[in-house]
Structures are given as C-alpha cells and as structure tokens.
UniProtKB/TrEMBL annotation:
SUPFAM superfamilies: Anticodon-binding domain of a subclass of class I aminoacyl-tRNA synthetases, Methionyl-tRNA synthetase (MetRS), Zn-domain, Nucleotidylyl transferase. Zn(2+) binds at residues 169, 172, 182, 185. This is Methionine--tRNA ligase. GO terms for molecular function: ATP binding; metal ion binding; methionine-tRNA ligase activity. Is required not only for elongation of protein synthesis but also for the initiation of all mRNA translation through initiator tRNA(fMet) aminoacylation. The keyword Aminoacyl-tRNA synthetase applies. Residues 31-440 form the Methionyl/Leucyl tRNA synthetase domain. The gene is metG. It catalyses: tRNA(Met) + L-methionine + ATP = L-methionyl-tRNA(Met) + AMP + diphosphate. Signal peptide: none annotated. ATP binds at residue 380. It comes from Micromonospora saelicesensis. Its main location: cytoplasm. Keywords: Aminoacyl-tRNA synthetase, ATP-binding, Cytoplasm, Ligase, Metal-binding, Nucleotide-binding, Protein biosynthesis, Zinc. A motif ('HIGH' region) lies at residues 37-47.
Length: 626
C-alpha cells in the first residue's frame, strides 16, 4: 500500500474530491527507481515491458497528482559480458558501452520515458559513490575479506580472469557457462563450480590456487532484512514470498572478481591492482543512489537527493518504488536493502552510518513477470525478438505503451503476439478511443467551429451520468496506478471511453440537424468533449504522446504531457562527456477534471492513432526466425 501512513485502505492522498479535483493533497517525495538496462546490446520490447513503461506510467501519474517525483536510472556497463563482447568486437569495453548507452538512451527517449536523469555506471560520480558505500560497509564489518580458490593458467602462472574460463553449468548443465555466470539459466557461478573447466585462451584446464576476495556478509544482515520485510504491505504476493524465501538461506556473497573492467576496490593495497574489480551487480544497484546524487549535483542543489534518501531529516517520509523484471528481485529485495542497512550500521554487527548518513530502504519492489514473443522466450541469438528501435520505426510509441499497459506481464507471464497487437491497436485504440475523439471534434468543428456551449435548458440525466462516470475515474484510476495495478487502471480509463461511445450512439447528435435542435446538439457535444478531455487526462500517464495531440485537438495550448530530452553533458568530475535523458516535468496537466471552455476554437481534426493493415502480422512473423 502506498501512502505516507502505512495502513490498509486507500491512503488519503489518493482521494479526489467528489468534483474530480485533487482536494486536499498531501505531497510526498517519491523516488521511482528503474532497473538499469545492461549495455551489451539494444533492448527489446520484453525488457521495456518489465521496467520501462510501468515505471513511467507510475511516475507520470504521481507527478500529475502533485507529488515530488525523482525518476532515475542509467545503463549498467561493467562486468564480464561487456568485456567478452568488446574483446570479440576488437574494441575497448568503454567503446562498446558508449555504443549501446547511446542506442538505449535513444530508444527510451522514443518511448517517452520521463526520467529526471538516465545516466550510466561509468561516470566518475558513480565510481565515487560505489566506493563510499564499499568503504562504509567495510568499516562496519559487513564486507569481509575471504580466501577462496581462484583460477590461474598452469602454463603461464598468471591469473585467469573469469571470462576466460568456460565449462558445464553445475545447475542447468549448459555446456558453455562462463566462470562467473551461466547465460542459459542466469545463475551466478564461481569458476571452481564449473564442471570440466577449460581456459578459453588455450584450452588447458585451469589450476585453482588460494586468492583473496571480498564478501558481503549477508548472514549478519538477515535479521534486519527480515524485520524490514515483515513491515512491507501491499507488495505483489509472489514478490514478498520469493524475497522471504531467499532470507532462509543467506550465504556470504563474493562482491569482487578477477576482472579488469569495473570499479576498483577502494582499500589500500587493492586500489591500484589491475586484476581485481568490484563485481558488476554490486556496483549497478548502487546506481539508484549515485544517479540521484548526480541529478542533485546537476540541479544546482547538491543536497537535493536527500529528500528521497535520508532516513533522518529531509527524506524521512519519502517513498521509494523499484521497478524491474522478476529475474532481478533478489538484487532489490535482498542485496540492495542489505547494502543500505550495512552502510547505515544497522545489521547484527551495528556500526556507524557513512558520510551520506542513514539511507532509506525500498518502500516497495514492484516486479513484473516475463513477456514472451509468439509463445517463445525472447532470444536475440535465435532472432525471436523485436528491438525497441525497430518497433518504433514501424509503429507509434503509444501503440506499444498501450499494449504493455493493457496486456503486459504485470502479474503473470504473458505472450506478445502480432495478431493481438493488431487487434488492440485497431479495435481499442483506433476504433474505441481515437474514433470517439475524431467524431466529436469533427462534428463540433463542422457545426460550431468552436466548443459549443451548454443549452440554457440544462443537462439531462444522461448528460450528468456520463460526466459523473468520467469524474469518478480520477479516483479509481489514480488509486489503481498508485497500487501498481496498471492493467486494471487502463481498463477503468477505457471504460469511460466506452461509456462515452455508448452515450453518443444513444444521443445521436448527428440526427439533430434542424435549427431548432441545434442547442441540444451543442449540449451533447459539449458533454462529450468534456468527457473526452477527462478521459484524455486519465490516459495521459499511459499514452503521453497522443494525450498531447488530443489536448491540442480540443483547442488546448502549451505542454499537456511533458517529454524527456536527450542532452550531451560533461562528466561532473572530469571524465568523458556522455548523453543523458532528462526533462522538465513540472509543467503539464494535473490529475483533475478541467472544465472545457465554450467558444474555444477547435483545431482541424486529424486522426490521433494509425489504423494498421492486417498484413503486418504476416510481415512481422516472417521476420522471426523459425
Ligand atoms: Zn546454467
């Protein structure tokens, strides 16, 4: 359950007054923390259905409802897979990360995802924040050195980095698992766990010798994690259950690797070692904090991040929501809260908070299930895939956003099929919503040229009933988005659309052609246009691009749904420049019914959505390999 006061029932800041206005609203600081896409290739629509669109719908709604939202993320750029691919492509890991960072930034921009800051993990700011957390936890005793078995090449005697060791996965039996990870089952491994380990350089069997690494002492944080999980309310039950189960068997976890690409270990004797780096998953989760700090430093108020993070003072009532696919739950419901607790000095070893102070644990981990494609798992190598970029070249962003919200993997694995995409686009977006807008705006423009006034005879019961349905939508739809039930929320918004279509068929304003009937025709169109304006606001978090167009068709000016921009920025601490996504989201519509003004000129009608030809289904299926 969301809300400044953790009780069951609807938090009072959701409640709209009966007239659809915001009423007395309690503003909160809300962190929307969005999973970091890995920069080893372009992202496909399965990825953005898990982390991208749901987080943006939530952030947009919360801003419209008057909250102070900070939405941050970036590309995750360290680790073995990027190093391996860079080696294969004959470029440096940084060059590879640069390439896909740019691709991903452009794709997320194309989808209209309203990040306050979308950055990357290769900034100097990120390195400094990661090292600060590492040092703080080390001082408090939650990071401990441990002697483990590391691989060396018997012929040269040198350390063999994880990525150069290959063997059979002990968990799933996949025969080309790498030393740190199995790409088939996704489990993290240690080289010594591999069955029949071989060097990828020369095929020899590596020799395992004692070497030192650092471990996160998760057992020392288990109790504080359990207490925290016990206070969570309103989480999706599978996420909470899964997270609790993980606590039953917590082991110390290695957070450094034999690898050259990553954040250096910030301890004397380790800082300058070229062969040991902080493990990618440890650095990536800290990105939520480092990106918030980077955003604050760029905003001109370097302490502004504290409003969302400080457990004492400015951020003590802040809320934080983490959005991801289900394969990432462990990092957000166990590892990340463990790091935050250890840094704050709150595990069984106690300790003192580091210089950033005590930090907030997540309010909620909002995890999506998986999207499949035509009944199969997305797979870039097997070409069962459509990348965001290719999708946006052929279709509109809102068509995809609509599909994800209405039919995405919110709480069950769901299948994307082109036939269903076509049906949803043509029957629901075009015939349901787009047509309603078009018919009413065209009829009003043709007969009145402006938004017609309400006839002095007043409103009928049917008029009042429809207006009430739309106003009620602000409470129901807003409440559902706030509780991460977006599928139901967009369903409720589309019910308003369906009611308006039914009203129009029943009232049949096109039959009121006589001059004497024209005032009533004007009233019907006024009511319909008011409801279109309300429905458009209800749909704005889901369909921001078309919401702006509908706003303009109704004669509105200015920004209705603010959009992100790509900016090339300098690294704040002297590193290379890079592109970020950011934007000014203080402008735009509020979550309330705004009365349309009679007499306001209407724009020339034009279709808001594109009807798709059924032939696209066969064309797209032909692009998938069989
Ligand atoms: Zn495996």
């Amino acid at each position: 359950m969301v809300g400044p006061v953790r009780r069951s029932g609807t938090p009072h800041w959701f409640a709209n007054a009966p007239d659809g206005s915001l009423g007395s609203l309690l503003m909160s600081h809300v962190l929307a923390a969005v999973a970091w896409p890995y920069a080893n290739g372009p992202r496909h629509i399965g990825h953005v259905s898990g982390f991208g669109v749901p987080s943006d719908v939530f952030a947009r709604y919360m801003r419209m409802a008057g909250h102070d939202v900070l939405m941050v993320s970036g590309t995750d750029e360290h680790g073995t897979p990027i190093q391996v691919q860079a080696d294969a492509d004959g470029v440096t890991p940084r060059e590879l990360a640069d390439r896909y960072n740019r691709v991903i930034v452009e794709d997320l921009h194309g989808l209209g995802l309203s990040y306050d800051l979308f950055t990357r993990t290769t900034t100097r700011n990120h390195y400094a924040v990661v090292q600060e957390l590492f040092e703080g936890m080390y001082r408090n005793g939650y990071i401990v050195p441990k002697t483990t078995m590391g691989a060396i090449s018997p012929s040269t005697g040198r350390t063999l980095p994880d990525r150069y060791i290959e063997g059979t996965c002990p968990i799933c039996g996949y025969d080309s698992a790498r030393g740190d990870q199995c790409d088939n089952c996704g489990n993290q491994l240690d080289p010594i766990d591999l069955i029949n380990p071989k060097s990828r350089i020369n095929g020899e069997t590596p020799k395992f010798v004692e070497t030192e690494h650092f471990f996160l002492d998760l057992p020392a944080l288990a109790e504080v994690l359990r207490q925290w999980l016990d206070t969570r309310e309103g989480w999706r039950p599978n996420v909470l259950r899964f997270s609790r189960n993980l606590l039953d068997d917590l082991q110390p976890r290695a957070i450094t690797r034999d690898l050259e690409w990553g954040v250096p270990i910030p301890l004397d004797g380790w800082r300058d070692r070229p062969d040991k780096r902080i493990y990618v998953w440890f650095d990536a989760v800290i990105g939520y904090l480092s990106a918030s700090i980077e955003w604050a430093r760029r905003s001109g108020d370097p302490d502004a991040w504290r409003k969302y993070w400080s457990a004492d003072g400015a951020g003590k009532d802040a809320q934080s929501y983490y959005f991801m696919g289900k394969d990432n739950i462990v990092f957000h419901s166990v590892i990340w809260p463990a790091l935050l607790s250890g840094y704050s000095g709150e595990g069984s070893r106690d300790g003192e908070p580091g210089e950033l102070g005590r930090l907030n644990l997540p309010t909620e981990v909002v995890s999506s299930e998986y999207l499949t494609m035509e009944g199969r798992k997305f797979s870039s190598s097997r070409k069962v895939v459509i990348y965001v970029r290719d999708f946006l070249e052929r279709y509109d962003a809102d068509a995809l956003r609509y599909f994800i919200a209405a039919a995405g993997p919110e709480s069950n694995d769901t299948d994307f099929t082109w036939a269903e995409f076509l049906r949803r686009n043509n029957d629901e977006l075009v015939a349901g919503w787009g047509n309603l807008v078009n018919r009413c705006v065209s009829m009003a423009a043709k007969n009145f040229g402006v938004i017609p006034p309400v006839d002095p005879a007043g409103l009928t019961e049917a008029d009042e009933a429809l207006l009430a349905v739309a106003r009620t939508g602000f409470t129901t739809v807003g409440d559902l988005i706030g509780r991460h039930r977006q599928k139901q929320a967009i369903g409720e918004a589309m019910k308003v659309v369906a009611e308006a279509n039914r009203y129009l068929s029943e009232q049949a304003p096109w039959k009121l052609k006589d001059e004497a009937d024209k005032p009533r025709m004007g009233t019907i169109l006024h009511v319909a246009l008011q409801v279109i304006s309300d429905a458009n606001t209800l749909l704005t978090p889901f369909l921001p691009h078309s919401a702006q167009q509908v706003h303009e068709l109704l004669g509105g000016t200015g920004v209705h749904a603010p959009m992100p921009v790509i900016e090339q920025v300098d690294d704040l601490d002297g590193g290379p420049a890079y592109p970020v996504l950011t934007g000014d989201y203080t402008v735009g519509a509020r979550w309330e019914s705004v009365s349309i003004e009679a007499g306001r000129p209407l724009a020339a009608p034009k279709p808001v959505f594109r009807k798709l030809d059924p032939s696209i289904v066969d064309e797209e299926l032909a692009r998938l390999a069989d």
